[in-house]
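Lab manual, section 2.4: Encoding a predicted structure.

Procedure: take the sequence of the chain (333 residues), apply the prediction step described in section 2.3, and record the output as structure tokens. A sample record is shown.
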Amino acid sequence: MTVSVIVPVYRAQNTLDRCVESILSQLPPDGQLILVEDGSPDESGLLCDEWATRDCRVMALHQKNGGAAAARNAGLEAATGEVIQFVDADDQLLPGVYDTLLPLMEAGAQLCFFACTAQEDGQPEEVLPWREYPSFREMEPELLEHYLFGSELFSHPINKLYAAGLIRRIGVRFDPSLRVNEDIQFNYTVMAGCGPFVLVPQVFYRIHTEDDGSLSRQFRTDLCGSARKVLPALEGFLASAGCSEEKRREYLDRFLAQSGSNQYGILASRPGPFAARKAALKELLTQPVFRRGILDRLARDPNRLLALPLRFCVYFRLSGLLAVLFQLRNRQP
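Recorded output:
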């Protein structure tokens, strides 16, 4: 089966060569590597063009900055392969992915999940079982719940091979209006229409965490709003997986609570403007589902003494006081 690998490229001049080499070293001769330069202000665009000149499997696309979702969509429009893969420009593809997974795709799998690592020794972020399923309805309920809430397996686009026919049949694309959770929305939409899929325990992807400018490490206040936009896709997936209406309501509520907890964690730990921090905390503390997620998070804090005044502020919705505390904690030198 032919493969199209899509790589959004933004501020990647220091990592792009490493990424591309890791893909081309094992990409089949008829494979396609699509580098989508997303209005990057550095030399990334020139590097993309150089790679397209050096290797006929490489296609370089250039567009105004629109974010990772818009870049991946551009790649999907240009892709001609029967299998789609997404790789981030600061990461590496590890050996063996195509030798192992393409036969499974040829045998009928529409999705292949594999393990990732952030460690130099290759230890996986999560140990996956080797499992083949005819659909998500047949996945064990406890395993489904774990991957929904205790894992990032369903969230990432980088730890999967997708059947291009499945994506075309559903007509799904990434939502460019979202700067976070767009990959979760995409995956739940794909998974809702998915037939046979496989979990593979091997580690085929290395995530590099050295880039402190990564969007995932920045101050942001949009997690809860984007989570609400993901709810229809999540509900559609849960229905397709055979979850009861009661279980779907429970999981949707839990997803929102987890989003509130994650947003609180960002507001508590990263430098940012006071007004934005205060407004975001006020919104969080006025929504019962988000407040419940934060209180659950604080209840699990190993330093209960330090967490006590924070729990007091959350319980009594003292968003202004929390904003002052977090602003002082995250003052930049």
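Check your result against the sample. The radius of gyration is 21 Å.
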